[in-house]
Design brief:
It is a single chain. The chain has 64 residues and is mostly helical. 80% of the residues lie in helices and 0% in strands. The protein contains two helices and no strands.
Length: 64
């Protein structure tokens, strides 16, 4: 049977993703979309999202 709840690591990572997403939106509102800081935060968010997807996929596959 597969676990239906995310692991603690996945929950912590999702919290970091949400915090960075808020920072990104606020930075866009203050500096504009093409600011180097906005682009860096966007890349950082992409990295966290990819890490989260990998973690969740591995946890799902480990459930078999």
């Amino acid at each position: 049977m597969l676990k239906s709840e995310p692991s603690v690591a996945a929950e912590q990572l999702m919290k970091s993703i949400e915090e960075l997403r808020i920072e990104l939106y606020e930075t866009v509102n203050h500096l504009g979309r093409m600011s180097p800081l906005v682009l860096k935060k966007s890349r950082d968010l992409d990295i966290l999202l990819n890490h989260y997807n990998d973690l969740v996929l591995n946890e799902y596959l480990a459930g078999y």
